[in-house]
Amino acid sequence: MKLSQDELNAFFDADDLRKQLTALTVNSDGDGSDFQIRASVLGILKSAVKKSRDLIEAKLNEDGGGLLCASRLSLVQDELIRVIYDFALYHVYRIKNPSAAERMAVSAVGGYGRGTLAPGSDIDLLFILPYKQTPWGEQVVEYILYMLWDLGFKVGHATRNIDECIRLAKADMTIRTAILEARFIWGDQPLFDELISRYGSEVVEGTSSEFIAAKLKERDERHQRQGASRYLVEPNIKEGKGGLRDLNTLFWIAKYHYRVARQSDLVKKGVLTRSEYARFKKSDDFLWAVRCHLHFLTGRPEERLSFDVQREIAIRLGYTQHPGMKDVERFMKHYFLVAKDVGDLTRIICAALEEEHVKDPRDRGFSGIMRRLRTGRGAANIQPVKGATGFVVENNRLNVTSDQIFENDPANILRVFQIADKHDYRLHPRLTRLIRHSLKLIDPALRNDPEANRLFLSVLTSRNSPETNLRKMNETGVLGRFVPEFGKVVAMMQFNMYHHYTVDEHLIRSIGVLAEIERGDSGDDHPLATDLILTLQNRKVLFVAMFLHDIAKGRPEDHSIGGARVARKLCPRFGLTDAETETVAWLIEKHLEMSTIAQSRDLSDPKTITDFAHIVQSLERLKLLLILTVADIRAVGPGVFNGWKGQLLRTLYYATEPQLTGGHTKLSHQRTIALAKEDLGGKLAHWPEKARSDYMNRHYPAYWLRTEPDRLLAHAELLHQNDQEGGRLSFQITPRAFEGVTELTIMAPDHPRLLSTIAGACYSTGANIVDAQIDTTTDGFALDTIFIGRELPDDEDERRRGERITTLIEEALRGDTTLPEPVSKKNAMKGRMKAFKVATDVLLNNALSEDYTVLEISGLDRPGLLYDLTRSIATLNLNIGSAHISTFGEKVVDVFYVTDLTGQKIANIGRQDIIRERLANAVDGQIELDPAAPVARKIQRQAS
Question: Start and end of every HD domain (predicted)?
Fold first, then answer.
């Protein structure tokens, strides 16, 4: 970009600065090396730099031009370096009669060499010196560098003669790339020109293949480090896939191979069309605007577009809220569409390079394919696709014989992906380009064409690799055109910490997970889903429901309801029957139900299971919903699905299955309890008869109904050993590697504050409670089973971690240590969490359980929240029967099954209001002091 001298002077008046600096030496009768003069020089330059930065930021806010901003910063930096160089040359290290050895060229390299800088960018400089050197060159370089460092710039630099530059460029690809974009700033122009001339003839000539391979390999490794998807919701705008570095890499390759000076020259070379070049510039400008705003906002060279800055950047760029989409979500959608454009440009340029490697120019294009097929030359590499007229496979890449193939039959656009899926072909870059240029052919007529829909459904429900080909369809723009409802969620981001990918990427990944489960390739994460998917009566409805389950995201209404309505419209078009359509719609409408119930309800409560069975209604739907739920959670992001969630889903499935098959009527609760006692009694045959008989009366009926046999035995042995030792506190630690949790069993005198003490100890040690089962014995003891998230790979290490937690619990109960005070919401909110606003909600429900009032508390997650909630519940004189802790990114949903101290539900309306108010305050970090603290201390003394 060129600025007029007046425009440049408005930001940074170099001539005026030179006069000011010269006046310092004239007025003081000293030279520029004097310490006081140098300090004055530094002060004047600092003031000028700050003023220019402020003006450039204001101009960015005014015109929004990213490339303009980057160019202005670069031009100002050029002028600054020239001023410093001139002052060093004329007032610090002045030579009256310089020799040929006392010359220097100052050049910009790397990103600075392109003439673009972000506010926090490194300043990469190459000082080019003659072959013969004197101390003068080293002194000037040192003066310039120290001045730039003192001004606060991070400077990357090298000082070399031309021979050294050429030798190192041949040996080191990083140096070769840096010199590729070298740009003269100041000093001796002939030195710089000689370097560029020799670089072209001695380094670049004949080495483009080597350079291209190195740059593409470097790009792939960088993508792997940053995360292989361009649809990560906290992208790195410089290094991430679809970011600025990808555009830079494209131009490096093009500049090196085609020997062009400017991006626009790629149009003249026929590499890009004018519209593609316009996309290149538009993408570049947008990414630079985001990067410059990000640096100005954070005051540092921050490249990750994290949650805590996304909203502010959106506001700076002028995005506003629309129904169903926040301002930040609209901004991020634009970002991901740009990242997708960068991916398209990558494929276009790589296709052009591939064409360049064809030796015979007559072999290029579709006519070349037909000529080789007619003559037989190269026929070993090009073969027709059987049963698909007009399609050929060229070096395992699918291509076509005519650029009219889609105009002749638009359904061929869908057939491309069906063939690629069937034969595991990659798409030829030339074919990919033709598809993008033919998107206008995907019109209502094609969308309603039965053959086109049959082809699409075959790709979606393929047993091969549906994820791969759906992603190809999405990247070429076909998927969003053929299914416009999908097009609305392309690049759509959900502004939360739970979802790792954009909506379209999540949907495509979920299909991949589903296919993985069906092939049995998903490991041991969810064995039940792997078994059940092979027993389905109709797998097609599962894949269609998976593809559409989040299709209505970004609308004002509930996306599950909206998605079901979309399914009822689309499924008949896809060729599904009425019954299949209703099943798909039901799955979408209920796709969150099983996960919510498994993670936030007491699965040992019979009413939970009965209510869920009424929702599901059939065993086939239960199977479908379980598999869909597993795949959905797994596709959210790495580490979101874990063994504990899998165990909860399996428990809910196995508890519901008998009710749907009539098995629940076979045994009454009394008979179930009797059988549990009988089974346990047989395992306790080594106990004395009286001890065994007494123990069977030590638990209430609910305990026998909801506790698994292996846990019944473990509890019995724990309590029996405690009785023999005459103790009042006992602990048991059981690592469960498959579920990804460690189970802590605590036996202690019962009191309302026991769970809050346990939560406080876990909070103090950094342990994350994921579930809790609270039981009380008939003789006044609490038997609490706490599940904490596993952190260490080895069971013994995890057991020692558990021992540290139980030791702290024991010390707290005995009154030997003080647990931390509740954490205020203000102090707890750190980093990314500050970016989110989650409304606090406290629901109180007496209909979800026959025996308990269910408290569901949702709000913004923070350290110590569970501790604060359990303390508040204790001050409300409520008994906790079970607790279920669920975290969805920044949002937490904690559910407690409670009664009053007499074991009754909370029926009084006034008391319900007090509970809601107290717990809402607790979420916000406002904990009322415990009025029963003396009683608590008394209980602690009893425990000891």
Answer: 503-625
Q: Could you tell me the sign of the dihedral formed by the alpha carbons of 340, 344, 350, 353, in that order?
A: negative
The tens digit of pLDDT for each residue in 8-26 reads: 778 888 889 999 998 888 7
Q: Where are the domains of the chain?
A: 5-205, 531-657, 728-943
Confidence (pLDDT) at 650: 87
The neighbouring-strand residues paired with 781 are 749
The two structure tokens encoding residue 140: 């000037």
- Those residues with Cβ within 8 angstroms of residue 201's Cβ, 6 or more apart along the chain or in another chain: none
Homologous superfamily (CATH) of 5-205 is Beta Polymerase, domain 2 (3.30.460.10)
Q: Which of 529, 597, 621, 544 has its CA nearest to residue 575?
A: 544
CA angle 258, 263, 267 (to 5 degrees): 70
* SS3 state at 316: helix
Which residue, among 876, 878, 884, has the nearest Cα to 904 in the 3D structure?
A: 878
Burial class (CB in 10 A: 0-12, 13-18, 19+), 163: exposed
Contact 623, 536 (CB under 8 A): yes
Residue type at position 738: F
Contact (Cβ atoms closer than 8 angstroms) between residue 303 and residue 297: no
pLDDT tens, residue by residue, 367-418: 554 455 455 555 447 888 988 899 999 878 899 999 899 999 999 999 999 9
Give the torsion through C-alpha atoms of 428, 340, 405, 466, to 10 deg.
70
In this prediction, residue 229 has a pLDDT band, given cuts at 50, 70 and 90, of: low
Q: Quick one: 354 exposed, middle or buried, by C-beta within 10 A (0-12, 13-18, 19+)?
A: middle
Backbone angles phi, psi at 840, to 5 degrees: -75, 135
First CA to last CA distance, the chain: 78
Nearest Cα residue to 927 out of 843, 870, 859: 870
Residue burial 306-319, b: 16+ Cβ < 10 Å; e: rest = bbebbbebbebbeb
| Displacement of CA 395 from its chain's centroid (Å) | 35
Average pLDDT over residues 128-149: 89
Distance, in Å, from the CA atom of 439 to the CA atom of 564, rounded to the nearest integer, reads 28
The one-letter code for the residue type at 381 is N
- DSSP letter for each residue of 796-842: HHHHHHHHHHHHHHHHHHHTSS-PPPPPPHHHH--GGGGG-----EE
Pairing of the two strands 891-900 and 878-888:
antiparallel
**Contacts of residue 823, Cβ cutoff 8 Å, sequence gap at least 6:** 862, 863, 864, 865, 867, 868, 925
Tokens of 209: 């293949």
In contact, 307 and 835? CB cutoff 8 Å: yes
Length of the chain: 944
3-state secondary structure (DSSP) of residue 849: coil
Task: Say which residues have a Cβ less than 8 Å from residue 320's Cβ, sequence separation at least 6.
Answer: 327, 330
Read off the pTM: 0.76
Closest CA to 916 of 838, 843, 824, 822: 843
Cβ atoms of 787 and 743 closer than 8 Å: yes
Q: What is the pLDDT of residues 279-307, one digit of tens each?
A: 889 999 999 999 999 999 999 999 888 88
Q: Give the CA angle between residues 911, 916, 920 to the nearest 5°.
A: 150
- Tokens 């009380």 locate to 776
Pick left, alpha or beta for residue 428 (phi over 0 → left; psi -120 to 50 → alpha; otherwise beta): beta
> Can you list the pairs that 445-453 forms with residues at least 24 positions away whose Cβ atoms lie under 8 Å?
445/410, 446/410, 446/411, 446/413, 446/482, 447/482, 447/483, 447/484, 447/573, 448/573, 449/410, 449/411, 450/575, 451/411, 452/410, 452/411, 452/414, 452/482, 453/573, 453/574, 453/575
Q: Collapse the DSSP code of 880 into the 3-class scheme (helix H, G, I; strand E, B; otherwise coil) and give the result.
A: strand
Return the structure tokens found at 489: 């969620």
H or E element at residue 127: strand 123-129
Q: Contacts from 938-944 at CB under 8 Å and sequence distance 24+? A: 939/749, 939/751, 939/753, 940/812, 940/813, 940/814, 940/815, 941/815, 942/728, 942/749, 943/728, 943/729, 943/748, 943/749, 943/813, 943/814, 944/728, 944/813, 944/814, 944/815
